[in-house]
Amino acid sequence: MSHILIVYYSLFHNTENLALEIAEQTGGVLRELIPAKNYSFDYNTAAKEVRNEISRGFCPKLVSGNESIEEYQTIFIGTPNWFKTLAPPVMSFLRQHNFTDKTIIPFCTHGGGGFGQIEKDIAKECSKSIILPGIAVNGTGSPEEVTNWLETMGYKL
């Protein structure tokens, strides 16, 4: 069994596609975070829902993806950049687990905003972890971009 876990939340499949590429190149186990209540598939409606949740610090209940992380030493954590921070389902995951002494590697997809505050927000929630440099890609990124990033950290199969 792999000791690498790739956890992600994706509404429009960009983050999912990036997570799939990371899993393929590392041999890691994929885990999708699914909230109890789905967001609208209409971008503008979803944006209003998310902005409201982020401003309230709301962490939705997860119906899938929140299983134990005990057996994993390295955890890639993926999220879309929503208003310069994590998607609320990812924050739920972070707040429900103990990441002490685990290696955390963030990744995100964005439409031009880069990481925003995502790396800082993950570091705050995982303060007793080793945080490695993440990757922020516009859209889904390319396999070569992922390969180069993983090789710099020694995580390429």
UniProtKB/TrEMBL annotation:
InterPro entries: Flavodoxin/NO_synth, Flavoprotein-like_sf. One of its GO terms (molecular function) is oxidoreductase activity, acting on NAD(P)H. Residues 4-153 form the Flavodoxin-like domain. Gene3D superfamilies: 3.40.50.360. Coiled coil: none annotated. It holds the Pfam family Flavodoxin_4. This is Flavodoxin. It comes from Irregularibacter muris.
